[in-house]
């Protein structure tokens, strides 16, 4: 027995050393991006329709342009353009001045739609602060729980919002997410990804959109409330007519 004891310790050490260590929050996010489009995002032109409005995003390296085109009640065509240099509004092909009080709401509205369509792209940005909360399961499927907040500098027009993403520990897909927001008296949302499809190498999903009445509820608790059917469905988030052009 005395001769076997050192061997037992050696085998135990080898077994422990082989145990896989959980990746960091940054590594998990990087893997999620890699598996849904990776470098293709950085040089892509993506157009789509959402709630009868047309959207287009163009990225060329570090430069971006987000557009929203809509028809108002009197038939005018309004195009809002959000880019690295700020917001520009055009009405019937003419640039118009935007009141200071409207710059932030318009920018938030345009940015928000593009943000959710492009997830997980952008979560690797320096302004995105990521924290691995641990692992949890939803309907017996294991996920990494990643909390994301944004720095004011470089964090976009709605940098105060907070997010939690449930990322599959096996294929790194983002199957669920939750977030809170400050506009319109604030609120919290929980989304389930549905209808995944690949277009020109980039993955897109739609969402079932849920809310919860108690705004003080921690975002990381919403998955359990979803399992017990305690969330209220408010809408379906459906992105239509998606077209992708990859720059060369």
CATH-defined architecture: Clam
- Secondary-structure-derived class: alpha+beta
Provide the β-strand percentage band.
over 45%
CA-atom Rg in angstroms = 22 Å
Provide a descriptive summary of the structure in words.
Strand 10 and strand 11 (187-199) form a beta hairpin. This protein has 4 helices and 14 strands. The relative contact order is 0.14. It has a single domain, classed as outer membrane lipoprotein receptor (LolB), chain A (Clam), CATH 2.50.20. The strands form 2 sheets. Strands 6-5-4-3-2-1-14 form a 7-stranded antiparallel sheet, covered by helices on one side. The protein has a 7-stranded antiparallel sheet with strand order 7-8-9-10-11-12-13. The longest helix is centred in the middle third of the chain and has 19 residues, at 100-118. Helix content is 20%, strand content 45%. By secondary structure, the chain is α+β, with helices and mostly antiparallel strands.
Name the descriptors.
248 residues, outer membrane lipoprotein receptor (LolB), chain A, 7-stranded antiparallel beta sheet, 4 helices, 20% helix, globular, disordered N terminus, DUF6503
Write the layout of secondary structure elements.
Elements: H1 4-18, H2 25-34, E1 44-50, E2 53-60, E3 63-71, E4 77-83, E5 86-91, E6 94-96, H3 100-118, E7 128-138, E8 141-150, E9 162-168, E10 174-181, E11 187-199, E12 202-211, H4 222-227, E13 232-237, E14 240-246
Antiparallel strand pairs: 1-2, 1-14, 2-3, 3-4, 4-5, 5-6, 7-8, 8-9, 9-10, 10-11, 11-12, 12-13
Pfam families: DUF6503 (PF20113)
Organism: Christiangramia antarctica
Protein name: DUF6503 family protein
């Amino acid at each position: 027995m005395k001769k076997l004891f050192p061997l037992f310790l050696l085998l135990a050490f080898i077994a422990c050393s082989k145990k896989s260590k959980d990746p960091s929050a940054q590594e998990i996010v990087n893997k999620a991006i890699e598996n849904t489009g990776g470098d293709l995002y950085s040089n892509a032109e993506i157009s789509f329709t959402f709630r009868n409005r047309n959207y287009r995003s163009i990225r060329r390296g570090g430069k971006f342009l987000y557009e929203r085109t809509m028809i108002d009640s009197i038939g005018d065509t309004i195009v809002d353009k959000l880019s690295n240099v700020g917001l520009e509004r055009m009405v019937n092909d003419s640039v118009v001045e935007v009141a200071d009080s409207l710059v932030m709401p318009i920018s938030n509205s345009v940015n928000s739609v593009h943000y959710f369509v492009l997830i997980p792209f952008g979560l690797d940005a320096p302004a995105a602060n990521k924290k691995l909360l641990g692992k949890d399961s939803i309907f017996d499927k294991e996920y990494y729980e990643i909390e994301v907040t944004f720095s004011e500098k470089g964090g976009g027009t709605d940098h105060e919002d907070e997010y939690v993403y449930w990322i599959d520990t096996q294929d790194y897909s983002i199957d669920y997410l939750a977030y809170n927001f400050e506009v319109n008296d604030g609120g919290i949302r929980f989304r389930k990804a549905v209808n995944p499809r690949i277009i020109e190498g980039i993955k897109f999903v739609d969402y079932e959109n849920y809310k919860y009445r108690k705004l003080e509820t921690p975002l990381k608790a919403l998955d359990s409330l979803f399992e017990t059917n305690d969330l209220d469905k408010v809408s379906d988030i459906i992105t239509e007519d998606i077209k992708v052009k990859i720059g060369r």
